[in-house]
Amino acid sequence: MSYRLQRLPVAKPSVAFAARIASVVLALLTAGLVLKLVGMEPLALAGRVLKSTFGSSFGLEDLALLFTPLLYCGLAVAVALRIGAWNIGAEGQFNLGAFAAAGIALFVPGPDWAQLPAMAVTGALAGAAWILVPTLARAYAGVSELITTLLLNFVALLLVYWVSTGPWLDPSGHALATTARLPVSVPEFWGIVHWGLPVAVILAVGLAAVFAFTRWGYEVRIGGSNPGAARYAGMPVRRHLIAVMLLSGAIAGLGGMMEVAGTVGRLQGGISNNYGYLGIMVAVLARAAPLGTIATAFLMATILNGGIILQTQGLTTHTVLALTGLILLYAAIGDEAAKYRIVKLAKGA
Amino acid sequence: MISIKSLSRRGFLNMGAAAGAGLLLPRTGLVRPAFAQAPLAPVDVKDAMIAFGHTGPVSDEGWTWAHDQGMKAVEAAFPGIRTSFVESVPYSADATRIFRQFVADGANMVFATSNYGDFLYDVAKRAPEVAFYECDGRTHMDNLGTYYVQHWYPSYVAGIAAGAMSKSGKLGYVASFPVPSVYSGTNAFLMGARTVNPAATVQCIVINSWFDPQAATQAGTALLDNGCDVLFGIMDEAGYLQVAEARGAKAVMWNTDLRRYGPKAYITSIMVDFKPFYVEQVRRRLAGEWTPTYGLLPMGQGVDRDAWGETVPPEVAAKADAARKKMMEEGWSPFVGEIKDSKGNIKVAAGQKMTEEELYHWDWSIEGVSGLDA
């Protein structure tokens, strides 16, 4: 009797899910082991993180504020992945969305009820505009969107730095390297948590429904997994690619609008806080499923928030970064491992 | 260096601490005019916790390292006191989380060694029993003070030496952001240089960071390529000094003695020392005497030029030190009009002396400084 490994083209969902859980647990165990080796008390630290995060409304509010931009950026990346495009530029689109929304708030006077929707729409449009060139280059010239979207991040960041330290600098003279406080803000519904959070969750549910139940969503999924077959079947793959990538940029842009108008209140250089890059991890961990991003954005927010608590206990930012990297590494291994199964070979086979 | 990257400050609430202070605390119900302000209650050293939020790593050998020395001085002065610090605090909502965590962990006093603006004020507003300090801050609250250094004086002194040692008269400056620290630093540096070379200029490159050795190195290289032969800057590390050393140019640094990274290039450094300030403020907090202060540490008491570098000719050092002596002993200020801005407008009238407040808030370049004004 002998055994052999058999590779499946697609992992069984239950196995994939178990692999995902196992990879996160293993990553945490590894991190705990390393902490133990350097002389820290991993269990005490973990208890402290859980207590500080979930034991008070302050902790939960912080978590929710961290979760919101991660969900927008995770959704942006996940949506593009559905049609096989890597949007590495959520960071830039997020910045552009914040930039455009701040511009409306600061320079286009109007009542709150009109200004907030206008800011949301402008933020989303700005995010879409920022991915327009990479989208067309990919759709018509086959230029890798991986590189073009990535490079535009730096341009967006410099643009935000420039306006917030230059032409849009707070005229009061008391604020450095930032715009004035925006005269409107996204209303809060629980402590310091604003409506950007429920909007993001509704967006995730809506996108999941669109991909699951509409013809358009079906065609996008097919176009992503097998563009040749989709074209042969008469599906307008290029048109779908353009629409999906613009949608991806718009979601990240909306996230930027919510961050500047809901959480931070001023446009400044550090506003994106790497959410765009972390969104890639959120989407990959969720296997690009919109509903899954809710869970993985929550996990990521918990890890990052835990990281802040760990820093006040004497760990460095690099340790926290290493921990997030470790989880992604284990998840990638788990993903691949989930595609294998052990089969028993019958005698004589 | 200092402060700011993103900064934010709620400037409109800052119309004078006295008038505005009460307005800042409506959520806690603590509305009291500043003139009636009582000190925060005393704390036993065994129960005390002092926290520091830093813009860079404590190992930067620059700004953050200098503040970390201050924390160590506090630990030495008050045995048994608890301290906590976080490095590389981003200028984002994460800063709020970090400062809030300090408060949740029981901090009695929180020092932001850079300019975190609203991210700090949001926490200070909700923790009226905790003393906060913002370095290079410009906002006053009942429980929030500010502190910084009068670096423009040693920058002027260093400028005299730089002007004398430059052959091209073109000085370069590696800037973090176009903020007052950078305006006052470049302006003072050029005013010093022009006392020996009236045609001197300063060209700035802004790199959007206080700690980015790679960008600082590139900026230094670009400035030298452009004909500059003395570099100055406001960086937390030694990147552009190494460039100057390799290219046979000179450099003036900030924060600490960095001469071992470029002994031939090193002219001097704008040295900072926050140890006495931190020890004194912690003492006041523990003793129940603390109310916020808004001071600028003067030259000789928190900021000064470093000992001159080995290649600085003695006569150059003597000339620069003569100005330093006049400032320290006679209270002389070189910041007297007429001073024109980079567009040629007269901003300080002839004979008018700029106040410390004006120097601290300086937000325009003098004629001869390029690269900062939009």
Keywords summarizing the entry:
heterodimer; A: 349 residues; mainly alpha; ABC transporter involved in vitamin B12 uptake, BtuC; two-stranded antiparallel sheet; 72% helix; B: 374 residues; alpha/beta; Rossmann fold; 2 domains; seven-stranded mixed sheet
Structure commentary:
The complex is a heterodimer of chains A (349) and B (374). By secondary structure, chain A is mainly alpha-helical. Chain A has a single domain (41-314), classed as ABC transporter involved in vitamin B12 uptake, BtuC. Helix content of chain A is 72%, strand content 5%. Chain A has 13 helices and four strands. In chain A, strand 2 (188-190) and strand 3 form a beta hairpin. The longest helix of chain A has 30 residues, at 112-141. Chain A is globular and about 85 Å long. Chain A starts with a strand and ends with a strand. With 374 residues, chain B is of the alpha/beta class. Chain B folds into two domains: 11-149 and 274-297, Rossmann fold (3-Layer(aba) Sandwich), CATH 3.40.50; 152-264 and 305-370, Response regulator (Rossmann fold, 3-Layer(aba) Sandwich). Helix content of chain B is 34%, strand content 18%. Chain B contains eleven helices and 15 strands. In chain B, strands 12-10-9-8-6-7-15 form a seven-stranded mixed beta sheet, with helices on both faces. Chain B has a six-stranded parallel beta sheet with strand order 2-1-3-4-5-11, sandwiched between helices. In chain B, a hairpin with a 5-residue loop joins strand 13 and strand 14 (346-348). The longest helix of chain B is centred in the last third of the chain and has 17 residues, at 314-330. Chain B is globular and about 60 Å long. Residues 1-36 of chain B have low confidence and may be disordered. The chains are: A mainly alpha (349), B alpha/beta (374). Chains A and B meet through helix 3, helix 6, helix 10 and helix 12 of A and helix 3 of B. Chain A: One of its GO terms (cellular component) is plasma membrane. Chain A: It comes from Paenirhodobacter hankyongi. Chain A: Keywords: Cell membrane, Membrane, Transmembrane, Transmembrane helix. Chain A: One of its GO terms (molecular function) is transmembrane transporter activity.
